[in-house]
Amino acid sequence: MVKDLILKNRTYRRFYQEHKISKEELLEFIDIARISSSGGNHQSLKYIPCYTEEHKALIFNNIKWAGYLKDWDGPEEGEKPGAYIIVLQDKSISNNCLWDHGIAAVNILLSAVEKGLGGCMFGSVNRDQISRSLNLGDNLEILMVIALGKPKENVVLKDAESDGDINYYRDKEGNHYVPKRSLKEVVIDI
Ligand SMILES: Cc1cc2nc3c(=O)[nH]c(=O)nc-3n(C[C@H](O)[C@H](O)[C@H](O)COP(=O)(O)O)c2cc1C
Question: Taking a C-beta distance cutoff of 8 angstroms, is the pair 145, 122 a contact?
């Protein structure tokens, strides 16, 4: 069932770092992103697979983890992602990819979950630093980063409280709780 896959497709931020993800695996995910829907069928997205220690360190040092977890700076050594995919807009093809990158990212993550992996989308990215370090051409704009790995955390969905607090949090055992608004709250019944 697609819903089971979507339920499992949580944001994971701690991984079994020893589980490596190969370039070939990343290319399989990108190959799925490549055939995703695209506004106007422009297909202006490009993807950089990052799997070497050097590139993984560059990405790790230029993304911001879990803004709501104030006392946690990101995964410690041993729990870092196995790989990343940088999603870019090729402005030489189109200046506006609409929401193509969201669709592509979800398809990558669902494919990863189906293989027992998981990950996290990053909008909070030090784009200038990564672009400079990778000598990206002026036509390439970083839209997001996707971290991937073998998840090492328990993520629990719960109903958001009536006060509307949607901050995710962890308990003492490290379980990660994510409040979701109710069906009633999100449907506008006309
Ligand atoms: C567009 C987008 C950008 C995000 N950016 C970040 C980010 O920069 N850093 C981070 O730790 N999580 C990021 N997330 C993960 C969200 O915090 C996460 O989706 C949310 O807490 C709900 O958890 P869930 O994905 O398990 O439902 C992002 C998610 C989306 C969809």
Answer: yes
pTM to 2 decimal places:
0.98
- Taking the CA atoms of the chain, what radius of gyration do you get in angstroms? 17
User: Could you report the per-residue pLDDT of 120-154, keeping only the tens digit for each?
Assistant: 999 999 999 999 999 999 999 999 999 999 999 99
- Rounded to an integer, what distance in angstroms lies between the CA atom of residue 34 and that of residue 85? 13
Residue with tokens 């490290």: 174
Q: What share of the chain is helix, strand, coil (3-state, %, to 5)?
A: 30, 25, 45
H helical segments located in the chain: 2-8, 23-34, 53-60, 100-114, 127-133, 183-186
100, 121, 175: which to mutate for ligand 1, most atoms within 8 A of CB? 121
Pocket of ligand 1 (CB under 6 A): 10-11, 13, 64-66, 120-124, 155, 168, 178
